[in-house]
Design goal:
Blueprint (H helix, E strand, L loop, with lengths): L4 E3 L5 E2 L16 E13 L5 E12 L5 E5 L5 E4 L1 H6 L2 H18 L13 E8 L1 E5 L6 E4 L5 E9 L8 E8 L14 E3 L3
Parallel strand pairs: 5-7
Antiparallel strand pairs: 1-3, 2-3, 3-4, 4-5, 4-6, 7-10, 8-9, 8-12, 10-11
């Protein structure tokens, strides 16, 4: 399996994408604050590049923290098929999770203190299991039935300035994919580490 090197390239635009199928991962009483489209460029070992494009839904919890939700059905790809195909489903969601938090810092939704001794925290949620179909640019994901939610928590700090956040995954939890079934022909695979 090829290891992908990544370079973040963010493209933020506002949209009205419907997240109806995966809103169960958002806590009751949360207020949706924003929807943003993000683009991430991933470089492969052979020099090729590909882009993952997805929408994030920012929401404010009842305690006042802004968290993020990813709808797997909003993820699309363009670019070098070999780079896309070399990434496992979990690797894709790992990259997307970190890039989502970095975008949250860029749009001012997640604070980014200069000291990593007192970081801020951000949570990214998505369905625990997805069915992956297609290859290259036609790769797509659908949430699996009864999959529950993957919850990732990141620490965030900006010792080198707001344009270069340090985003570190500190915990993740998921019920796993046992008993989950997919919409399409692909098996259900985990989105969580």
């Amino acid at each position: 399996m090829k290891r992908a090197l990544l370079a973040f390239v963010f493209l933020a635009t506002y949209s009205t994408y419907s997240f109806a199928q995966t809103q169960w991962c958002i806590e009751s009483g949360a207020e949706i604050t924003d929807s943003v489209e993000v683009e991430l460029t991933v470089s492969g070992q052979g020099g090729g590049t590909a882009q993952a494009i997805w929408e994030i839904l920012a929401y404010r919890t009842t305690s006042g923290q802004v968290n993020y939700m990813i709808d797997p059905a909003s993820i699309s790809f363009k670019g070098d098929a070999s780079v896309i195909n070399a990434l496992t489903t979990q690797q894709i969601f790992d990259l997307i999770g970190m890039a989502t938090v970095s975008e949250g810092v860029a749009i001012g939704a997640t604070p980014c203190p200069s000291s990593c001794l007192t970081p801020s925290y951000a949570t990214v949620v998505q369905p625990s299991c997805v069915s992956r179909t297609g290859t290259g640019e036609s790769t797509s994901f659908e949430s699996c039935y009864s999959s529950g939610c993957c919850v990732r928590v990141y620490s965030v700090c900006c010792p080198n300035g707001q344009g270069m956040p340090q985003v570190v995954l500190i915990s993740s939890q998921s019920p796993g994919c046992s008993g989950a079934s997919g919409y399409g022909p692909g098996p259900c695979t985990s989105t969580c580490p």
